[in-house]
Amino acid sequence: MKKWTSWQDWTVIAAGAYAALSVLWTSQGGSSTALMVILGVLLVAAGVTNLAMPGMPAAEWAQAVFAVVLLLAPWFGGFTSMTGAAWSAWIPGAVALVVTAFAIKPSTEEYRHHHVMPAP
């Protein structure tokens, strides 16, 4: 895997940026602003990390966890009734989770290719 070429991680960066910035054009309430900005920034950071250092399955799994938390944020943060904010968490969270699922296997294979234990 080459650095800066994974479409999955670029998609996660876009989803994270959308979630973080959506607080500017959607009605917010409760803890929605904080959750969406923090989780969006974490997704962007995870995507950049995975682009810069491909072949780190642990980073892909962390990215998946951030995506799941963003997907569940409207329930945790109590803003499911605020449809603009809720959908701005659900959609980017689901997109990030799906594309991260596509990236985990290649990342694991890349890791194994470069970290194979020599035969005794």
From TrEMBL:
<keyword id="KW-0812">Transmembrane</keyword>
<feature type="transmembrane region" description="Helical">
    <location>
        <begin position="33"/>
        <end position="53"/>
    </location>
</feature>
<keyword id="KW-0472">Membrane</keyword>
<keyword id="KW-1133">Transmembrane helix</keyword>
<protein>
    <recommendedName>
        <fullName>SPW repeat-containing integral membrane domain-containing protein</fullName>
    </recommendedName>
</protein>
<feature type="transmembrane region" description="Helical">
    <location>
        <begin position="85"/>
        <end position="104"/>
    </location>
</feature>
<feature type="transmembrane region" description="Helical">
    <location>
        <begin position="7"/>
        <end position="27"/>
    </location>
</feature>
<dbReference type="Pfam" id="PF03779">
    <property type="entry name" value="SPW"/>
</dbReference>
<feature type="domain" description="SPW repeat-containing integral membrane">
    <location>
        <begin position="7"/>
        <end position="100"/>
    </location>
</feature>
<feature type="transmembrane region" description="Helical">
    <location>
        <begin position="60"/>
        <end position="79"/>
    </location>
</feature>
<dbReference type="InterPro" id="IPR005530">
    <property type="entry name" value="SPW"/>
</dbReference>
